[in-house]
Amino acid sequence: MIDRFRRNFTGIGIPKAERIEELNLEAILSPDEARQGGLISIGVPSFHPCPICGGSGRDWLFLCSYCRGQGMREKEEMVDVRIPARIPDGAILEVPITGLGIDNFCIRLHVRIGF
């Protein structure tokens, strides 16, 4: 799964017929939160070219110590998910994350109401 996730950022080895896969997450809401609705922020890892080596993984003759030769740095991006008011227990929300450059995954948020 990690290799599939990284392919979004490297563009290397992407199969032409790759389908979108869901990342299943569970949100446990209080009855008041479910009644009012609101916004949930979910942290999603994303990768960016290393600012030191420019994505090559090398700093002259040596491996880049900043990215450890990976050529990329991981960063957490926040995705805001709007929870509609009066959402029922067991509802499922699907959230695309293509805005982060992640084309082959989406977030599938399973809503549970705790007591």
Describe the structure in your own words.
The chain is mainly β. Helix content is 13%, strand content 44%. It has helices spanning 2-10, 31-36, and strands at 21-29, 38-49, 58-59, 62-63, 72-83, 92-96, 105-113. It starts with a helix and ends with a strand. The mean pLDDT is 87.
Overall number of domains: 1
> CATH superfamily, please?
Urease metallochaperone UreE, N-terminal domain
CATH top level label:
Mainly Beta
The ordered string of helix (H) and strand (E) elements is: HEHEEEEEE
Shape: elongated
Across the major sheet, the strand order is 1-7-6
Low-confidence stretches: none
How many individual helices?
2
Under the CATH scheme, the architecture is Sandwich
Main beta sheet: strand number and arrangement?
A: 3 strands, mixed
What is the first-to-last residue Cα distance? 34 Å
The portion of residues assigned to helices is: 10-25%
Instruction: Examine the coordinates and then state which fold CATH places here, giving the name of the CATH topology.
Output: HSP40/DNAj peptide-binding domain
Radius of gyration, taken over Cα atoms and rounded to an integer in Å: 18 Å
